[in-house]
From TrEMBL:
InterPro entries reported for this sequence: CC_SR_Kinase, Kinase-like_dom_sf, Prot_kinase_dom, Protein_kinase_ATP_BS, Ser/Thr_kinase_AS
Domain of life: Eukaryota
Pfam families named among the record's database cross-references: Pkinase
Protein name in UniProt: Interferon-induced, double-stranded RNA-activated protein kinase
Biased composition (Basic and acidic residues): 46-63
Species of provenance: Phalacrocorax carbo
Length: 347
């Protein structure tokens, strides 16, 4: 496009030279003609340079898909060097970290909305997480938007001293749950005089989300308060599908999940949806108990996992205790399904 504008400019200049060629009757005007031409040429040259500069600037703004340059210094971020992340998002802040990777809060430059962006090392497992998350559509499940692969610098805490390595990562853009995990909600609201009513409402929403997951023939396998979030609208959102698997899988991986919430059979290699029900029983007990500290919770946890609820809890929650006991049954076939529990609670 620059060659075209240059040729047009030459034609224009020739045209002006013809029109400005002095006639014999012009006399003294001849000496001023070259100056006039030089001035016009300079003006046109300046205009053309400005136009070319603007075109280049516009094309740079629109080329968000060109990810070949390192923009980390330009964006002033020390959290990531991934070009797409830096080109498409601003105000990147860390909000979670663990063995799973990192979660960031970031504002999209185009739509100005704030999202959660999860960064994990790219493996077949996380590829499956994205595939399963993309096909789930329910109000009580964290909404998936898009994902991309790209290299990034990850701090490896082992061995010490810490090392930074550049590896292939998967970035998952999801709905941001502003109120954080369920544990935060319990701590914030446990002294509210309407807490029991609020807690039942939250657990109903969790149940609906799990019922939907099971209806898709999937098992979450890692249900716990840290993987259940609260949105800005005060809605439950089940997230972290890193260990989700299909019911159809014959041989399931043993010891996958968080030990304190894992069903007994999950420590072996053969289990089904019932492992999610066992975890839900523990979560329901935890929500209703609203412990003031981890120490208080740890004193009763082993007994509760063995289906022995504290007497004080059984007296305080006579309707819920028998259902929770069934959910914590050592025999998977003895546990209620998510649909059955919903029926009990809604009747």
């Amino acid at each position: 496009c620059f060659e075209d504008s240059g040729s047009k400019f030459v034609v224009k200049m020739k045209d002006m030279e013809i029109r400005e060629k002095p006639s014999p009757s012009q006399g003294d005007a001849q000496s001023s003609a070259p100056k006039s031409r030089r001035k016009l040429a300079a003006n046109f040259d300046n205009v053309r340079k400005e136009e070319e500069k603007k075109k280049m600037s516009d094309s740079h703004d629109e080329s968000l898909t060109d990810l070949g340059t390192d923009t980390s210094e330009l964006n002033g971020s020390t959290l990531t060097v991934n070009d797409r992340f830096l080109q498409c998002f601003k105000n990147i802040e860390p909000i979670g970290e663990g063995g799973f990777g990192n979660v960031f809060k970031a504002t999209a430059k185009l739509d100005k909305k704030t999202y959660a962006v999860k960064r994990v090392e790219f493996t077949k497992d996380v590829e499956r997480e994205v595939e399963e998350l993309a096909r789930l559509d329910h109000e009580n499940i964290v909404r998936y938007y898009c994902s991309w692969k790209g290299r990034d610098n990850i701090t490896d805490s082992e061995p010490r001293p810490m090392m930074v390595k550049n590896i292939l990562c998967l970035f998952i853009q999801m709905e941001l749950c502003e109120q954080g995990p369920l544990g935060n909600w319990i701590e914030k609201n446990r002294r509210d005089r309407k807490y029991h009513e609020m807690a039942q409402n939250k657990f109903l929403q969790i149940l609906k989300g799990v019922k939907y997951i099971h209806s898709k023939e999937l098992i979450h396998r890692d249900l716990k308060p840290q993987n259940i979030f609260i949105s800005h609208e005060d809605k439950i959102k089940i997230g972290d599908f890193g260990l989700v698997t299909s019911v159809a899988c014959g041989a399931l991986t043993e010891n996958r999940g968080t030990a304190t919430y894992m069903a007994p059979e999950q420590f072996g290699g053969k289990y089904g949806k019932e492992v999610d029900i066992y975890a839900l029983g523990l979560i329901w007990f935890e929500i209703l108990s609203a412990f003031s500290s981890q120490h208080e919770r740890s004193k009763v946890w082993t007994h509760v996992r063995e289906c022995n609820l504290p007497e004080s809890f059984t007296k305080r929650f006579p309707a819920e205790a028998p259902i929770i006991k069934k959910m914590l049954s050592g025999e998977p076939s003895g546990r209620y399904s998510a649909s059955e529990i919903l029926t009990f609670l809604e009747s």
